[in-house]
């Protein structure tokens, strides 16, 4: 997949500046508004909405969402945008939680109520900038009894787990596509669609985040070109396979860049900004990535364990003796240093599943790519080809660590023998990597495990015949207690998947 960009880098900078100053600013980048809440304590009343994202739990938006007044909603063009909202404690000390802010995604519309004045119940009447927030999000900045609070807000980049998602709706010769889980600017300016038997066809906004086209595309693999409101265009090549059906959803493995990263990309990554580091990347494993199976993290068959082909082996500087297993990185080819970047290439997100060992027989700039102190990614070939030209073999990159998006909960595979347990912990979200693990049998206290190798943790305990609980602490410091995830009838080599996952 590739990303194309405007030939005028300054246009992106202009967007960032104007986006921050859409409304009269109080302090640099911040504007004044107000906020109420709706949807109940579990935000169940926020489902659906004028953007069409449906069940916000399932579609990844969660409870940090808001319905925007018409001044902000812009007839649905703002769907998916993210805002940092803080209670204006200086204006209302009684009901504000001082020093608190929350980031929400626009998922709904708060309609005007012209029977009430804008300062007495008609909170969403033009020209008011108002956020009707999901109750759990609102309670992070305000005191429940307040009901409505003055706020300061600013537009921010959206951070999403996984790639952009396309849900295929419509019938026969009418295509209605919901485009969701959009990072970066969060909102979409234009979309085109192409079947394997057609040319590119522009789509138009039907409502909210739904885009339409009167096209007969059943039985064809489908490619989309999505332009966000920052001017960045990403091409999702054949993201929908030929066997698709109406009602199905397909998630890509690529995302739009953050608002300020768009400025960075337009400038060819020169210089790298805070949060991005310089490194290099090669590829291995073959066109189907079958040669990447196994690896020094111990995840085994990466197809079956959910890691797929978006993986990489890390040089020892990054691998950290296995402590980095499961971490996720966003990688972009540094076009300011090489002509071997895939034309217009964007960024791809990979998971660390292997180590790339040093080759002391070769110089680090001539074959010993993984020699210390180089930060190097030996990526699976399919992942690498998203950003690099095959013939190059090696490219300079910029990379940053990002949150891992995983389907389902943390998985435990019980290995070992007799009184020795060797537990492989996989499918870890959040930071992806684990700091410490404890295990508890029905008849034992908590027992500290130690890292044996990669993602495998060990202890010497007689636990056969007991249900097992785990306490897992991520490298971000979050601890999850997963009680009795392994039943008493477990056997060595069996795997058990929890319904719990790291949230940050």
Automatic annotation (TrEMBL):
GO CC field: extracellular region; membrane
Domain of life assignment: Eukaryota
Record-linked SMART domains: DPBB_1
All residue ranges annotated as the Expansin-like EG45 domain in the record: 48-163, 294-409
Keywords noted in UniProt: Cell wall, Membrane, Secreted, Signal
Membrane disposition: Peripheral membrane protein
Signal peptide from the UniProt entry: 1-28
Pfam families per record: DPBB_1, Expansin_C
PANTHER family the record matches: EXPANSIN-A15
Family: Belongs to the expansin family. Expansin A subfamily.
Protein name as catalogued: Expansin
